[in-house]
């Protein structure tokens, strides 16, 4: 009986979660296929990291405006419009590829436009989940979302590789469009998202003031601000290292071996899956902030082990072990935000928090790609004394940078 009550209480969220998972799987397969395609065209780490930078920058720049609008506008309408734009971007890539006209810079431009729409979709989706889920289920729902993300990470490389071998890029893009259609129709016809109440005074307040309220809220709640800035530093280090460079790292060290890349990415996904199961079963942490700090330390230990090794098996083991605590960290961080931010302000505060903690990501990605291709990789090919010392830790092969 208790499980039936839970399912009834979570019906709207479960519909949204499952349908969006299908769509995200299609998008992830396309992303995987495009990384392979770009690396085949350019063969550089910076070409891949630049694609990721194009994905992040507009989202960061427009997130303040998007958060204020997400609190004022209909969340469902925002999500539907963003989904339509994402489908349009995939359609453009499909048409260009079909006529052998697709170029790398096209993908950069398309990702910038899609990132602009994501700036609006993400806060709307965050608030929609808070509205659809009773507060007592916040931590478990975070575990479910991590679970679906893990499943996608496991399936996307395998399915993406299979579809590429069976039908090429065209089949991957078509499957992406089909998965989008499923999610769009379910959201349009079967999911009703409640709206937050707004006082007349709040509705009339100046838009610029509304945009800045998220920052003001974090400034007034110093604990939330400190943990946000902590994550900003972590994001910079992660994108400078393993999290941002894993694809060129593996492809460079294995002579563009897609199978090994798929194995490492699957190990990451299995770690996320294991962490999601643990998160869904365990009781919520009493001190969620402390859990965030401790799990971050474990993540970086795994990253260092992975970076210093030249064995694919070690890469997989380290990836699996370091991404289990990553799920626990993210679930606790999300629960902290949901529990301490009023529903009517979650769009603005979520956007302010995301902007602050993600503004370091493009810099980390840019520096990672530039340092790898133009500084450290050439340096490791020299015969300097420092290089000889480092060679004891890093074997002489492409990809050490």
What's the structural blueprint in terms of helices and strands?
Elements: H1 2-9, H2 11-42, H3 45-72, H4 75-98, H5 104-132, H6 138-190, H7 200-204, H8 207-220, H9 222-240, H10 242-253, H11 258-281, H12 288-308, H13 312-340, H14 346-358, H15 361-380, H16 385-390
Descriptive notes:
The structure is a single chain. By secondary structure, the protein is mainly alpha-helical. 84% of the residues lie in helices and 0% in strands. The chain has helices at 2-9, 11-42, 45-72, 75-98, 104-132, 138-190, 200-204, 207-220, 222-240, 242-253, 258-281, 288-308, 312-340, 346-358, 361-380, 385-390. Helix 4 (75-98) runs antiparallel to helix 5, helix 4 crosses helix 6 and helix 8 packs across helix 14 (346-358). The chain starts with a helix and ends in an 11-residue tail after the last helix.
Jot down its keywords.
401 residues, 16 helices, single chain, mainly alpha, disordered N terminus, globular
- Order of SSEs: HHHHHHHHHHHHHHHH
Global Rg: 21 Å
Tell me how many strands there are. Answer: 0
Report how far the terminal alpha carbons are from each other: 57 Å
Shape: globular
User: Helix content range of the residues, please?
Assistant: over 70%
**By helix and strand content, what is the structural category?**
mainly alpha
Largest sheet at a glance? none
Give a brief rundown of this model:
The chain has 401 residues and is mostly helical.
